[in-house]
Each structure stands twice: as C-alpha cells, then as structure tokens.
User: Fold these one by one.
Assistant:
Number 1:
Amino acid sequence: MPRRLARGECRGSESRERAVVTLAGVAPDVDGLGLIAEVLTRHAAHPLNWWSDYHHVFGHNLTFGVLVMALAFGLAQQRWKVAALVFVSFHLHLLCDLVGARGPDGTLWTIPYLWPFTLAGTWEWAGQWLLNSWQNLLLTAALLAATLFLAWKRGYSPLELVSAKADAIFVETLRRRFPPRLTGS
C-alpha cells in the first residue's frame, strides 16, 4: 500500500527532487562518456583518447560538483535542502571511487579534486580496492538489501525514476512477499 501523503506534500516534486539527488550521485561519471569516442576512433590515424585521458578528471572534482549543485538548486522546490543532499551525494561518489575503484590492471584511480585550477589537491589512496573486490561485492549486496527494505517500508523505490506504475507494482510485490509482522498486545 502506498504511503499516505502529509498535508501540503506534493508527491511529484518530492519524487523529482529524489531523482535529482540520485542523478547527482552518478553525475561524476559523465566524464566516462569519452569511452564512446575512444572506441569509435581507436583505429583512426588520430584516435581520441578521451576516456583514457579524462575519465575521473572532468566530472570528479569540486568545480563540477558545484555546477551540479547549482543546477539542482535551480530545479528544486526545497532548494537548500536538495542542494546540500546533492553535494553529499556527489561527494559520496568521489569517496567510493577513491576507496574502491582500482582498475583491473592494478592502476589506482585518483581524484583531481581541485582541477582545473591545480593538481595539487589530487586524492589518492594506496589501499584502494579492486573494482570487483569482495569488499565492493559485499557493500553492493548490503546496499541493495537496504534499498529493498526502504522500498518496502516507505512505499517507493529507485524504480520510480523510470516508471511510477512499475514502482508501485514492485513495492506492492515486496509487501505481499514480506508482509509486516503484526504485534500482539
């Protein structure tokens, strides 16, 4: 059963603001789109190494984070709250990359945090986990379980980003499969 809305609460704007915060968490990886140009030009006389040279650069820095936050501020009704959550979501992505995004060849992914102004503030951690490490797999499983629990409890899931109808069916299915326990008196 979907959650009841409080007086004055607007489900549409709340959903849109959750989407903005969620998308901010993946926004740093917009610099990964260079992979398309790199693959398409790899056999050309002058290949475009946009992914190799710029992934974890253009989108993984404070300047881009502030731009994403400003965009979210402009789109939101609860401007300051959403902007703050966007800033946290964005930086959580950077932290996760710093901790657990070592390449398959052992290459460390660095975060040029103060780019384009300087590379002096570049973050690097020698203990960085491999992207497919047991730590990342365990963390993924735990976060997926938390997401399912919150969807069951709150009445909406990240699926609402794609389809409100599919989200409602998903939550209803979760609640039928795992009905709330009745407490006796």
Number 2:
Amino acid sequence: MITPIIQFGTSRFLQAHVDLFVSDARAAGQDAGPITVVQTTTDKGREGRLAAFDGRPIPIVVRGLENGLPVERTEYTRSIVRGLSTSADWPEVERIFVEEARYVISNTGDSGYSNGKEVVGDGVPDAFPVKLTRLLLARWRRTRVPLTLLPCELVTFASRRT
C-alpha cells in the first residue's frame, strides 16, 4: 500500500482539517492521499486513536455558518489508511518516509519539542525535531527524492532580550 502522505500527530485538529480535506479531494477524483498517521509520543492516551486509524471512516462533526445559516452535520474522513507509532513501528515509519512519502504533515505539540539536548543516534529519538532529522537523513542517503513538509505546529517560544 503506497501512502504518499505521512502525518505526524493524531490530533482531532488534523482529522477535521487536513484529513477531511484530503478525503474530499479523493472523493472528487483528485490524486490525494492516502494518509498514514504516526503517533510521535509514548502517551498511552493516544494509543486508542491509533487503533481507529485502520481504514474505517472517521466521523467529523462540522459546526458553523454556511451561506450565512447555521449548520451542524457529520462528515466522514476516508483518507486515513493506517496508524503507526514511532516507538513501536520505527522501521516501518522510516520505510514509508523514505520510500513512499511525497508530503509530510506535522502537528506534534509543544511536548514534542521539549528535549533540546538530544542528538541523532542509533535508537528511536525522543524529540520530534530529532525524529524528523533522522528520517530526512535516511531519505537523503537512500533516495534523495524531494518531498514537501507542511508543519502545523503552534509552538510558543519565550522571547529573549539582549
């Protein structure tokens, strides 16, 4: 199964935006997706979400205004074909990243950036920037095929005064 989009982050934000948009594009006949979702942390609370990423439609509740009128409806994203974990599935995550991915989407949150002293080594990295660096290096070494990286993180950094 070829998955040209690899998504780091299991959040509902990505499901309701990126994944639903890709699902709509696929339904319209566009060459988009499918998506492999990757959990980047060892948070046990996220493991239940991973199990749901098995190709079944995921319901998304859409609320807001449409043509000036209130709407509330359930749509389904059908773009996600599988869920993996960097801690349990690193070799497969690396294989997909190196051999299949054309697009990388991420929304890992502040916790993924917390370990500022980690360096790229042989084991599975903890911090998301180190994971990404290692994956990019593996891709460069094996295929050198370019890809598009679309970060969706909203990370707050303290400003420094000099």
Number 3:
Amino acid sequence: MHTPLVLSPLEGIPLIQAGDDLVGFILQASEQQSILLQNNDIFVITQKIISKAEGRIVDLKTVEPSAYALDLAGETHKDPRLVELILRESNAVIRVGHDVIVVEHKLGFVCANAGVDQSNIEPPERALLLPEDPDESARRIRQQLEVETGMHLGVLIIDSHGRSWRVGVIGVSVGLSGMPGVVDLRGKSDLFDRTLRITVVAAADELAAAASLVMGEANEGTPVVHVRGFPYPLEDGNMSQLLRSRETDLFR
C-alpha cells in the first residue's frame, strides 16, 4: 500500500522583508499547526519569499533602459525598465509577443519575462527578481532546518510558469535540495512485465504543481507547504536535472 501524500499549507507566515529568518517562521508555523516533523518530510517554498528575504527587490526608478530594452518595450507594450531587468536576467531572448518576452534565464530554464514579477510587491515602482542561486538557497534553508530539528528533510523552491501549447500557469521547480529533481524508472517493469524504456519522472515538478494548488496564486498568503509521503527516496538532487539540453530540445 502506498503512503498517502499529504500537503499542508503553513498559516501565519508574515509578509517577508529582506533579511528575515525564513527558517524561524517555518518552524514557528509548523509548531502552531502541531506538525511534528519526521524524516523525509519536505517543505515547498514559493520563490517570492526567498527573493524577498534575499533582497532581490529592485526599485524601477533606478533602472536605465538600454536601446534594445526600449525597442522591445515598444514591441511588447511593457515598461522599458521591466524589459531592461528581464534582459539583465537572461542569456537570450527566445520569443517576443504582446506583454511577454520568453527568454532563457541565466539559471538555464526557459520562462516568460525571466521571472521578473510585480505581483504582491509593495509599494509600486518595484520589481522582484528570482533568487540568484535557488539551489544554494534551498540547500542553506534545508541545512538550517536539519540542524534545528535533527531530521533528514528536503526543500523545494517553486515558481509559476506557463507551458508550450497549453493555457495557464503551473507550479514548477526552480531550486531544490535534499530531494531528487527527476526519478529514472527506465529498466523497471510495468504491470504486464514490460520493461520501461523512456520513463523519467519529473518528480520535483510534479510536487511543485501539487503544492501550488495548495498555496494558491493570488492573495491566499500561504507561501510554504509541508509535505509528507513523497513517494520517492530523498536524495540530493538539483535543478539542472530537470533541464533539457539544447541538443535534445526540439521546441526552441
């Protein structure tokens, strides 16, 4: 029998400011909800509070758009200062449309607007960038949690991304520590004893999508989810496991 997968949103985490102790808030919220941590539990955390705690907020009044940013702003009808931040966070521009610039982010994945975001950011005229190194952020948080609790834990940092050929955003991984990014099932047998030849499960993204349902996407105010019953062994993976190489990427 499979262990049930249980996802519990942590209530009561305040609006995060630069320098805040995220681990302290997570442990306090867990205790208030009577969540007694166990080995192999996972915390899924939205990138937004990681970025806020790490001071990744930019005052748009300090941003001077380049000539390229001004050209793209005219084409996309976006604020030229936001376009400039998108370009600074990107390796390359992949596609351009109305109010969207699809890029290869400096972290290696393809996403809209390089993850530069203004939702739930106070006051106006500011924008939030993705964490500079989400894997390192996840590792640092996991290690501190493990020191505080004595448990073997995983940490997953997620963001909302759109997808090719489908409408709507979905939670995806942008950083992880203490858990696998993918699980390779090739060589295992199916129900009829046929050997699996191509099945590699994006386990971290599957959990990210589940957790984003619990977090919500608007004003719910639940940026951390506690997970118990993850169906795969915890091991130290990283974001690069989830990235398709250029040689095998048929969609650019």
